[in-house]
Amino acid sequence: MTKELDGQTIAFLVANEGVEQVELTDPWKKVVDEGGTPHLIAPQSGKVQAFDHLTSADEFDVDVVVSDADAADYDAVVLPGGVANPDQLRLDADAVSFLKGFVETGKPIAAICHAPWTLVEAGVVDGRTLTSWPSLRTDIENAGGTWVDREVVVCDCRPSLLVTSRNPDDLPAFNAQLVETFAKANAG
User: What predicted TM-score, i.e. pTM, was given to this entire model?
Assistant: First the structure.
């Protein structure tokens, strides 16, 4: 039986410390369950230290260092949240450049919770409608985006599709929508 993400390689872009574990592991599992191949991409080699809110959780092996990564090698990218994670990523020029590569090539992006901070830094929210953790509203609006308080939002403003959600409670809707969006964007 064919799964919706068969043959797709999905980048998961995170900082080496501070990613919200469930926002990494739940979408990762969904990608695997749907036949996709996830790759963990971070600024430094070695491990990623995940968190359960402010408490250290599990560590995960980095597959590719972001300075060596190329958006052309991936079908889509997932940006998990956590407060510290996107705050660190937006200061990493290679991470921001890697993310811009998805927009420039029209590949879909899925971001949850605080992850849109990295989108703001990449300069790719202008004219787009998205959601996030509520504290990012002003940042998104100041960057030219429209912020809404919804479980999941799909912005089909070209060149790339953008799926966003607010927090871990939204993961079931976020996961279902990212699979649907990634499958449609990469069909044919």
Answer: 0.97
Q: Is 82 left (phi over 0), alpha (psi -120 to 50) or beta?
A: left
CATH number of the domain that residue 27 is part of? 3.40.50.880
Helices 171-185 and 21-33 sit at what angle, rounded to 10 degrees? 50
Residue 151 structural domain: 9-182
- Is residue 82 assigned to a domain? yes
**Residue 47 near residue 60 (C-beta atoms within 8 A):** yes
DSSP string, 161-187: -EEEESSGGGHHHHHHHHHHHHHHHT-
Flag whether 3 is in a domain: no
Q: Is residue 1 part of a domain?
A: no
Residue 94 pLDDT > 80, yes or no? Answer: yes
CA angle 125, 45, 108 (to 5 degrees): 30
Active site residues: 113-114
Average pLDDT over residues 37-53: 97
